[in-house]
Amino acid sequence: MNRDLDTFQRSLDGPVLTPGAPGYEEEVAVYNQSVAHHPALVVGAASPGDVSAAVRYARAQGLAVAVLNTGHGPSLGATDETLLITTRRMTDIVIDAERRTARVQAGVRFGPLVEETARHGLAPLAGSSPGVGVVGYTLGGGASPTLGRLYGWASDHVTAMDVVTADGETHHVSPDSEAELFGALLGGKSNFGVVTAMEFTLFPVARLYAGALFFAGEDARAVLEAYRRFTGSAPDAMSSGLALLNFPPLPSLPPFLQGKLALTVRVSFAGPPDEGERLVAPLRDAAPVLMDTVGEMPFSEFAAISMDPTDPAAAVEHFGLLDEMAPGTVDALLGTVGPGSGSSVNLVDIRHLGGAYAHPPATGNAVGARDAAYAFFGLTVVPPGEAVADHADSGRELVEALAPWLHSGKHPGFVGPADATVDGTRPVYEPGLYARLRALKAAYDPENMLRVNHNIPPEPPR
């Protein structure tokens, strides 16, 4: 194997790293450190050819294949029976302003992409953080907190992809070329191949009326009720989310947040600022506002809306979808994670769906549960030096408390390590779609090489 490995290394543009080698730990590092990667081999792909060669080598050596860019959306860790392909060196971006499209390689993150699109007065359906990888986010559906309710899932606006399948072959897929594979990737994620490039539509949005309102924890009921009413009548151009946050006592935080429970309501309105101000007024009037960052801003400052943390950390997450946000939902939230609850959950995030999220895609894909009204997750930060397993159940009580309002399905972009089993993944897809995906998996990856993910196993031979 060493002779084969030497030959393999010389054939690539990027590095090949084995456990203990300089740079190995840095190469497998992820944003969400609750999942650790310990692969037998890491290929730092610098080109599509590297990806193809890596998949072929893994097949020859009997290794599974896993893919990693930033590690914001973990599922399973790569083991010593896995070849891990990292894509962060593949960062080409091509903007076609006339066609309003972007073509990005697999390692592109939203920060650099938005810098490029903003020069043309255009915007992608970006996530909340500039550090999130564009391709992985979009393959999981892509729920944009800035423009999602106006334009829908990012996956619905993909026009073409280049993908390396389990045999090492490269396919250019689109609604007109291998349409079944194209649609399966959008929602089926890395089950069907390694996407090396993606093309998608951009939108003529240069400015937003957006930001966040901060409230004290003791006003949680008033704010939650106001947000429930707000989302009940919000136009599609208004995307929003609410978070309950248990802040640690860090001196870097404003004094009114140190060691306190607080709420934030994040809004993003793609319309006239005066109309946005009118829509947000009931939220501002719900309770005393501790901090107000809502105002007109260039789209290029989208990261200031959510202010996501940038430092990697280990965190346990539990996800779900809601059919509605009823008065009883508010009671359940407050009883589980509200003031005086003693909950260990550090963050509960609720995102308003509906609007264009509910629209069917123009071409078929694997993103379902489109009739859900809200998505939510609970997050517990694992303190340094403590085992993730010791906190694995933190947040389950939140899901259980919200059971009466839970949607029956799951969404591919709102699943975590707790869902990374066959039984945990199956509800992401309605039964007929799941059967078709298993049949397609059998055609493109019959040995299930691409299984270090929320796995869709191949249909068994008949």
From TrEMBL:
Recorded GO MF terms: FAD binding; oxidoreductase activity
Pfam families: BBE, FAD_binding_4
Highest taxon of source: Bacteria
Domain FAD-binding PCMH-type: 35-205
InterPro entries: BBE, FAD-bd_PCMH, FAD-bd_PCMH-like_sf, FAD-bd_PCMH_sub1, FAD-bd_PCMH_sub2, FAD-linked_Oxidoreductase, Oxid_FAD_bind_N
Annotated transmembrane regions: none
Keywords: FAD, Flavoprotein, Oxidoreductase
Cofactor(s) for this UniProt protein: FAD
Family affiliation: Belongs to the oxygen-dependent FAD-linked oxidoreductase family.
Entries under PANTHER family matching the protein: BINDING OXIDOREDUCTASE, PUTATIVE (AFU_ORTHOLOGUE AFUA_1G17690)-RELATED (PTHR42973), FAD-BINDING PCMH-TYPE DOMAIN-CONTAINING PROTEIN (PTHR42973:SF39)
Protein name (database record): FAD-dependent oxidoreductase
Organism whose genome encodes this protein: Streptomyces liangshanensis
